[in-house]
Design a protein that fits this description.
Number of strands: 19
Strand content: 15-25%
Family: In the C-terminal section; belongs to the PPC synthetase family. In the N-terminal section; belongs to the HFCD (homo-oligomeric flavin containing Cys decarboxylase) superfamily.
Pathway: Cofactor biosynthesis; coenzyme A biosynthesis; CoA from (R)-pantothenate: step 2/5; Cofactor biosynthesis; coenzyme A biosynthesis; CoA from (R)-pantothenate: step 3/5
CATH class of the largest domain: Alpha Beta
Strand order of the largest sheet: 12-11-8-13-16-17-18-19
CATH superfamily of the largest domain: CoaB-like
EC number: 4.1.1.36, 6.3.2.5
CATH topology of the largest domain: Rossmann fold
Structural class: alpha/beta
Keywords: Decarboxylase, Flavoprotein, FMN, Ligase, Lyase, Magnesium, Metal-binding, Multifunctional enzyme
GO cellular component, one term: phosphopantothenoylcysteine decarboxylase complex
Largest sheet: 8 strands, mixed
Helix content: 25-40%
Number of domains: 2
């Protein structure tokens, strides 16, 4: 979403200025063209040359610089911006913007822009809780300004509390979200991801190779597109997507319970999890010792969550996943019909580039009307976006 985008980054004076260096790296790494405006105080913490080197663009700090500027600088930057970010944003600058004061390069450019403005505050916790500051922030929110809220932590002044600048990674995520069309606004997606673990004893379990990457990519992309998202995740090494309600489970029985609890609010269900088909009939209370030459473990079927959802989905859109190693289309089509699924994402996990732990996938999308769509090798993030494109289209057709 950021490739080729023009982003103006305003940097205010404060100890958190050093974090803006990492934010610039993330933005430029995603293909954005970044233009930095620094307040005079900000230049006391990090030299403008740092940002000029990272962005390959001149750093702006003076409102009137007729030698360096052939255009009216603040108007030129304001007009070209696809997104305006202020990070870190001080209480002083936020107060100025809230009351229409434009007395330096940064506040004047903000006043002139028609782009979305994302503000990441950073200040002492007492300043942050000051009623005057809170009124200023509320005023800006009412006018459509976006905020990457600060976090609680140890502050440079020695206090511990709210006011610490949000991490560059989360500010970056909010920047991507700000520029993503909200075609899923009003939808509530319930997404499952990852494997399940069926315990044999306190130290062993039956599971599979699912990494959860596909489901997490879908949840993250859906939130960016304006949906409310609940992610039910089996055990993975992945961090919960920002802004997504994440419910952690281990077994198939736990996943079923979490899915059914979240189902009433959902308008779309995407079952990307690789749920274990079987679980041990008996879980040993202690570790099974290696005494015999062989060990037989009796297994019983786990609940088929997708089939159960297909029987009670009502007006919801239901998307399933089918991981196969042979007869891909035949097996996936049978599952689609038997489980009353609206769209099945089928992939042959034996193909190179379509395995569980990689960052790419290859799939076929199968629909209830008998049609299918072949998706070539692409990243899981790209596939998540395409799956959600089809979800949006199907929801629109359903009215």
């Amino acid at each position: 979403m950021l490739k080729g985008k023009e982003i103006v980054l305003g940097i205010c004076g404060g100890i958190a200025v050093y974090k803006a260096v990492e934010l610039v790296r993330l933005l430029t790494g995603a293909g954005a063209n970044v233009h930095v405006i620094m307040t005079r105080a900000a230049t006391e913490f990090v030299a403008p040359l740092t940002f000029q080197t990272l962005t390959s663009n001149p750093v702006h700090s003076e409102l009137f610089n007729l030698i360096a500027e052939r255009e009216i600088g603040h108007i030129s930057l304001a007009d070209r911006a696809d997104l305006f970010i202020i990070a870190p944003a001080t209480a002083n600058v936020i107060g100025k913007i809230a009351h229409g004061i434009a007395d330096d390069m940064l506040t004047t450019t903000v006043m002139a822009t028609r782009a979305p403005v994302l503000i990441a505050p950073a200040m002492n916790c007492n300043m942050y809780r000051n009623p005057l500051y809170q009124e200023n922030e509320a005023r800006l929110r009412r006018h459509g300004y976006l905020f990457a809220d600060p976090v609680r932590g140890m502050l440079a002044c020695g206090w511990e509390g709210e006011g610490k600048l949000q991490s560059p990674e989360i500010i970056f995520e909010e920047a991507v979200t700000a520029l993503t069309p909200k075609d899923l606004a009003g939808e509530h997606l319930l997404v499952t991801a990852g494997p399940t673990q069926e315990e044999i004893d306190p130290v062993r379990f039956v599971s599979n190779h699912s990494s959860g990457k596909m489901g997490y990519a879908i949840a993250r992309a859906a939130r960016r597109r304006g949906a409310e998202v609940t992610l039910v995740s089996g055990p993975t090494c992945l961090d919960a997507p920002w802004g997504v309600e994440t419910v952690r489970v281990a077994s198939a029985v736990e996943m079923r319970a979490a899915v059914m609890a979240a189902l009433p609010a959902a308008t779309v269900v995407i079952k990307a999890a690789a749920v274990a088909d079987y679980r041990p009939v008996v879980r040993a209370t202690g570790k099974i010792k290696k005494n015999a030459d062989s060990l037989v473990i009796e297994l019983e079927k786990n609940p088929d969550i997708l089939a159960e959802l297909g029987g009670i989905k009502g007006e919801r859109l239901l998307v399933g996943f089918a991981a196969e190693t042979a007869d891909l289309l035949e097996n996936a089509r049978k599952k689609l019909v038997a489980k009353n699924v609206d769209m099945m994402v089928a992939n042959d996990v034996s193909l190179e580039g379509a395995g569980f732990h990689g960052d790419t996938n290859i799939a076929r999308l199968l629909y209830r009307d008998g049609t299918s769509e072949e998706l070539p090798l692409m990243t899981k993030n790209e596939m998540a976006a395409l799956i959600l494109d089809r979800v949006a289209e199907l929801r629109k057709k359903a009215g």
